[in-house]
Amino acid sequence: MVLLCPGAVLADVPGVASDAAGYATEGTCDRCHQQQANAWQGSDHSWAMRPAQPANVLGDFEGAKFEEAGVSARFHRSEQRYLVTLKGPDEPEATWEVAYTFGHRPLQQYLVTRPGGRLQALTLAWDSRDKAAGGQRWFSLYPGQSFSVDDPLHWQGRYQNWNAMCADCHSTHLQKGYQPDTDQFATTWQELSVGCQSCHGAGQRHIDWAEGRLPDASDAPGLPVALGALSGQQLAQQCARCHSRRQMLGVGHQMGEPLLNVALPALLTEGFYYPDGQIQGEVYVYGSFSQSRMHQMGVTCTDCHDPHSGQLKQQGNALCTQCHGSRPDPRFVSLRPGSYDSEAHHHHPSGSEGALCVNCHMPETTYMVVDPRRDHSFLIPRPDDRGETGSPDPCTDCHQEMSPGDASEWIVRWFEKGERRRSERPHWGPAFNAARSGDPDALALLIELVTDQTQPEPVRATAVASLPLYGNDALPHLEAALRDPSASVRAAAVPIFAEAPEAVKVRLLLSLLDDPMLAVRDEALKALAGTSPQGLGEAQPRFAQQLEAYHQRLRQNADLPGNRLNLAVLEARMGDVEGAIGHYEAALNMDPYFFPARVNLVTLLSQQGSVDRVRAVLDQGLALDDIAPADRAQLAYLRGLAAAQSGELEQANRWLEQAIALQPDHLRSHYNRALILDRLGRKEEALGALQQGLRLAPQAPDLLYASVYLNATLGNLPQALSDLATLRQLRPDDPQLERLESQLRGQ
Predict the structure, then answer these.
(1) Distance of CA 51 to the CA centre of its chain
(2) Does residue 202 share a domain with residue 81?
(3) If you ran DSSP here, which 8-state letter would residue 303 be given?
(4) Residue 406 C-alpha from the chain's centroid
C-alpha cells in the first residue's frame, strides 16, 4: 500500500492568490453585515468548497467500507487527516489524502491533490440525507460501473478534474491558470468558497471607506455591482454565470456585465433538453428559467430564493401565491387575481402531492444519483405533447396507468369553460421534435418561432440553429437573424455562414466585429478566420488584433476536449494545419471517446493526403469499447472511404456494409457502397445498394443521379428516365439534367 500525501505535490497545490486584485480577505464583510453573514454560513455557497477539517467533513471516515463493480474503498483517518484507500479492477491499492470537501447536501464529494496543480474529485461520495431518506452511506456516482485509470471518467480522469470542470463556480474570483503546452494548472482564488465578493464584486475599496481609510471622507464607494439596481432579467443573468449550462468566454465572471459578454448559454439541444424545453441533461436552471413567461415578465431568482441563505422565502404553495393569489404582485400587472391554491384550479385534494404547484409546473429530475432538481420553465402540463414528442409530463409520470391522450382529455374537461384550453395552446415542442427528426414540414414551424419576437430568446436562438437543415429556403431568415435584437439569436446565426464564400461572409459578418456582445463578436471572428487580407480590406488590422486576443483566450481555456476542439477548428481556419492536428490529438488524449475531435482530425488528415494517419486514427477509435452504435457506424463509414482512397475496394465494401448494419438510415453509406460496387464491376449489386438508400429517401439527389447512371448502363432506360424526371422536379433549373435527358432519349 502506498501513502500519497499532499506534500508530494505541495508546490503545485492551488491556493489563495498572491495579488489581492482589490478583493478583501475572506470574512472581512462579516463585521458590518453580520445578519447576511449568518444566513450565508449554512448556505450551499458557503459549503461549495472547504478544507477537509472535522467541522466540514460529513462522511464516515471511521473505517467505513464500500465495494461495488470491482472497486473497493476504505474511508479512515490518521489524526486530523482524512484518508481513502482505493483499489480498482486494474489498479493496485493506494491510499490518498482528502484535501477539501465539495458541497454538503444532498451529497458531499471529496478532492484529492494530484501533480500538475490538479485537484481531482473522487467518484465515491457521501449521501448526506437523513438515514430515513436513504442517506448516511457511501455511494458511487456511476452505480454499477468501474473505469480504468486512463478513462476520462475515472476519478483521476479529465472529467473529474476540479480545475477544469468545477472550480470556476465553487470559489471566488478563481484564476484557472491553465498552461496548454504542458497541460498543467497554476490555479488561485481570492476566497476558497463562494463568498460575498463572488456576487458583489471586489470589496476592499468599500471596506476601506467603511473603516475610514480613504483620504476623502466624502467619497462613499458602494460595492462594484449594485445588484439592487438591476432588472429581474439582468439579475438572473448574474446568477447564470454559474447556474447555467454555458461556454465561458475566458474573461472571468465580470459581475454586472450582460451574460453574453461573459458566457454563451447552451441552446435547447437534444441531450440537454427535451423538445419542449424541459430539462434532460444537467443544465443548471437558467436555460429552463429563461424560457419561462415569469422570466419574460421580470420575475427573478431572489423573488423566490433568499440570496444569502439560498433557502426558499416561503414554503409550499405560499411561495407561488405571493404572486399568483387573490392579490397579485403589483409589478406584474398582467396577472389575473385567482384562487390558484384551490381544488377548482389544481383538481387534486388539498394537502396532497398533486395539489402542490411545483409538482405540476416544476417537475423534478434526479442527477448525481440522489440530487433531485426542479425544472424552472414553469410549463403548463402538456400530456398531449408527451404522445407527440416524448417529452415527460407530470400527469402521466404520477398517474402511470393513464395514457397521454386520456390525461389530455381530463385537462380539456377541467378547463373547457376557461379562456384558455390548456391542451390547445401552441408550443415549440412539436417544432423542435420535427426538426430533430429531419421532418421537412418543420421549416415553417421554425420560421414562425424565429420571426415571433414574443417567443423566449433561447427558443428563437435554438430555432435559428435548426434552420440550416433546410437549405436555401432558410437563408433569408438566417441572414435576418444576424441583425436580430437578441444577441442569443445573432450568436446562433453566425456559425452557419462559416463555410459561405468569402465575399458573402465578409458582407454579412464583418459588421458583427463591432457587436455589443462579446459572444457574438467571438462567433464572427471564428467564422471569418482564414479570410484573406484583401477580402477584409481596411478592417484587416482590427480583425487581426481581435482574432489574436480570441485565440489567446481559447488557448488559456483548452483544458477540456471540447475547448481543444474549438481551438483546433480556429487554427485550421487560420491555416495552421499542424497546430490544429496537435490540438485534435490533445483532445483525444484527454478523451479518446470524444467523437467530434476524431472525425475532424480524420477530415483534416484526409485533406492533407495522410492516408496512413487517417487509418491509424480510425482504427484507434474502432478499437474502443462501449462506443455508441451511431459513432461506430460513422467511424466504419470513414474507414471504408479511407480504404477506397487506397484502392482497397473489397475492404472498403466490407467497412461500408458494417456501417449500414449499425446505422441503416445513413444515406451516404448506401451511396458510397454503390459507387464502390460499381468500380468492382458488380453493377447489379450496386443498383441494389442504391435502391436500399432510395427506399429511405426517394428524393435524395445524389442517389437519384447514381441510379440514373447505373440503370442507363444496365439498359434499364425507363427506370433511368423515371429517376431523371424526379430529379428535374427537384432541380428544375439545372441545365445538366436537360442535356442528360437528351442523351438518354437518344439512346
Answers:
(1) 30
(2) yes
(3) G
(4) 34
Largest Cα–Cα separation, the chain: 99
| b/e per residue 331-370 (b: at least 16 CB within 10 A) | eeeeeeeeebbeeebbeeeeeeebbbbbbbbbbebeeeeb
In a domain, 125, yes or no: yes
Handedness of CA 309, 314, 319, 325 (dihedral sign): negative
Q: Is the pLDDT of residue 420 over 80?
A: no
200 and 250 part of one domain: no
C-beta separation of 672 from 655 below 8 A: no
Spell out the residues 6+ positions from residue 244 whose beta carbon is closer than 8 angstroms to its own: 259, 263, 265, 266, 283, 284, 285, 286, 287
136: left (phi over 0), alpha (psi -120 to 50) or beta: left
Beta strands in 136-290 (DSSP E): 137-140, 178-179, 184-185, 188-189, 246-248, 263-265
pLDDT tens digits along 135-157: 999 999 999 999 999 999 999 99
CA 7 to chain centre: 37
| pLDDT of 5 over the 60 cut | no
Question: In this structure, is residue 648 part of a structural domain?
Answer: no
Q: Grid coordinates in use for 664?
A: 441503416
Range of the domain at 200: 2-210
Residue type, 351: G
Place of cell 465561458: 248
Quick one: what percent of the chain has pLDDT higher than 70? 95
Crossing angle of helices 649-662/629-645, nearest 10°?
A: 160
Same domain, 19 and 147: yes
**Are the C-beta atoms of 579 and 181 separated by less than 8 Å?**
no
Whether residues 200 and 303 fall in one domain: no
Residue 158 Cα distances to 114, 118, 238, 559, 738, angstroms: 12, 10, 28, 9, 57
| Single-letter residue type at 580 | A
276 and 184 within one domain: no
Total domains present in the chain: 2
Q: How many CB atoms lie within 10 A of CB 441?
A: 10
Same structural domain, 206 and 244: no
Kindly report whether the peptide bond that precedes residue 106 is cis, defined as omega within 30 degrees of 0: yes
Q: Give the number of other CB atoms < 10 A from CB of residue 399.
A: 14
Q: How far is CA 532 from CA 500, 502, 512, 566, in A?
A: 14, 8, 17, 21
Give a yes or no: residue 713 inside a domain: no
**Is the pLDDT reported for residue 31 higher than 60?**
yes
pLDDT of 237: 97
The residues that bridge with 263 in the sheet, in sequence order, are: 248
- Residue with cell string 484502392: 647
Say which amino acid occupies 377. S
Instruction: Report how far residue 692's alpha carbon sits from residue 709's, in angstroms, rounded to the nearest whole number.
Output: 16
What is the reported pTM?
0.91
The last residue of one of the domains, among 331, 362, 380, is 380
Radius of gyration of the chain (CA): 29
Alpha-carbon gap, residue 179 to 257, rounded angstroms: 27
Kind and range of the H or E run holding 709 = helix 701-713
Mean pLDDT of 708-716: 91
Task: Evaluate whether 532 touches 543 at the Cβ level (below 8 Å).
Answer: no
